Amino acid sequence: MATIEDVAKLTGLSRTTISRVINNHPYVSEEKRKLVLEAMEKLGYVPNSSARSLRNQKTSILALFIPRITNPFFSELVEATEIAAAEHGYQLIICQTRYSPEKELNYMNLLKTKQVDGVILASIQNEWKQLKPFLQYGPIVLCNEFDDCANVPTVRLDQVYGGYIATKHLLEQGHTKIAYCSGGYRSNVAKSREIGFKKALAEYKLTFDERYAFRDAFHIADGKRVFRQMMALSNRPTAVFTGSDEVAAGIISEALACGYRIPEHLAVVGFDNQAITELTNPTITTVHQPVKQMAQKAVDVMIEKIQTKKYDVQEIYEFPLQLIVRASTVGSELHQSEA
Q: Which of 129, 177, 219, 335 is 20 to 30 A from residue 141's alpha carbon, by CA?
C-alpha cells in the first residue's frame, strides 16, 4: 500500500504540503494541489493514517447509490434494502447522485477509503471502465440498472419483456398511434424497455414514429409537459407508454385539467406499480416490479461477496415482471398478471 512518503517522492514536495492537500488546507497553490491529487490517484494512496489496518477492517455498512430519493420506486428500494441489510447485521447509507457522474465517482471513494464494506448501484452514471478500478477496494453489486460490460453480480428485471407486455396491451386495445416516454438516455433499463416497445410494434407490422418519442421525463411535472407536447402534434397519439408511474400520473392530471377523458381520448400505461397508481382517477395500468425480492437478493449476494472476497465475477439474477391492467387503458378495473 502506498504511503505519504511515496506521494512526496513522486511529486517532489514535502510531507507537510502533501498533508495540507489531504486536509484541504487553504494555503496551497492550485498547481501543487493538482500535482498531489494526480500522484495519489496514480499510486492508489488512501489518505488515512491507519489505512494499512483499514484494509482488513469490517465496517458492517453498505452504501446504496440511487439517483433520486423522491422517486417512489427508489424510496421503496431503499426501505427494502435497509430491511434486508439489517437482517445480516449491516447498516445502510444512502448516496443520492442526482444523475451526476461526478457525484457518483465521489461517493465511490467511500469504498476506496474503507468507510463501507460494499456498494450497491441502483443506477449508473458513468461507464463501467470508470467504476471497475474500485473493485480492488471491495465488492460492487448492480441492482435494477445494469451494464453488460460489468464483471460483477447484477440483480435485474427483464425490462425488454416489461416494455413488450405494456405495449402489446395497448395494441390489443386497438391502438396503433402509441407514444413512448422514457427517462435518462444513459440508462440501459430505459433502452431495454424501448427495445420491448418496438418489438411489440413490429409484431403488429407497425414502425415507430420518432415524433412520438419523449425523453428525459422523470417527474409528475414532466408528464404534464409531455401531454402538452403530444396534444400539439398534428397527428396525435391515442395511447402512451411511460417508464414511470409519476410521469403517467402527470399526463393523466394534465389531460383531465384540459378536458380530455382517459382512456377514451388517451390511454396511459405507467411502470413500477407505485402506490399512486391506485390513488388517481382513473387508476393507472402499470408494470409491477418485484422491488422487495430484488433488494433482498442484492443484499444476499453482497454479503456473500464480502465473505468470499470474490468481487470480479459476473453473475446475472433476473426477476419477472407483471402487467397490472387498470382503468387508464380499459375503462374498468381488471387486474391481470402475465408471467
A: 219
